[in-house]
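Work Package 4 report. The design task specified in the project plan requires that, given a folded chain encoded as structure tokens, an amino acid be chosen for each position. We show below one input record used in the internal validation round.
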């Protein structure tokens, strides 16, 4: 009924240009990272390590793969959603994920010589935070803001209430 009356909120939602491509790219990236790290931890390009594969790192890599797949599942599940709260939460989660990975890499490599692979990883993850922050800021939260009414009923009620209250004070 709300669609017939024209009060359906999702019809008026506009996202910034490029958001859907970014959402698709993040879903594909997390799906690939998750599958790669879960099934092929020894070939993971995502963890900067030396030439030797340490077996205990394989378990951590598999856990990282599971976490990446869980985030990819969320991205695919909410594909096409028009709820700004959900979209902002997804953007914040992916930005926090990338930022924490940069922080983890910097703290683990602190004092060690950084090679080109580690620097590339740092650069890519740092750059991935920026579009998430951009879309997070530009989508905005619509929960507490005033919005335009689609009818004059609310205005008429406000005018009626203000007139009746001024008449009651004037008597």
């Amino acid at each position: 009924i709300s669609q017939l009356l024209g009060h359906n909120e999702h019809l008026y939602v506009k996202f910034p240009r490029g958001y859907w491509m970014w959402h698709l790219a993040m879903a594909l990236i997390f799906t690939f990272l998750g599958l790669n790290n879960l099934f092929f931890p020894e070939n993971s390009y995502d963890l900067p390590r030396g030439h030797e594969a340490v077996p205990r790192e394989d378990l951590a890599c598999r856990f990282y793969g599971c976490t990446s797949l869980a985030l990819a599942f969320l991205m695919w599940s909410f594909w096409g959603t028009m709820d700004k709260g959900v979209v902002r939460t997804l953007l914040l989660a992916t930005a926090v994920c990338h930022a924490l990975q940069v922080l983890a890499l910097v703290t683990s490599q602190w004092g060690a010589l950084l090679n080109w692979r580690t620097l590339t990883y740092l650069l890519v993850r740092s750059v991935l935070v920026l579009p998430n922050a951009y879309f997070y800021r530009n989508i905005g939260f619509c929960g507490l803001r005033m919005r335009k009414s689609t009818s004059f009923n609310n205005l008429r009620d406000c005018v009626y209430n203000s007139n009746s209250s001024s008449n009651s004070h004037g008597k």
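The chain has one domain: 13-147. Validation will be extended to a larger panel in the next phase.
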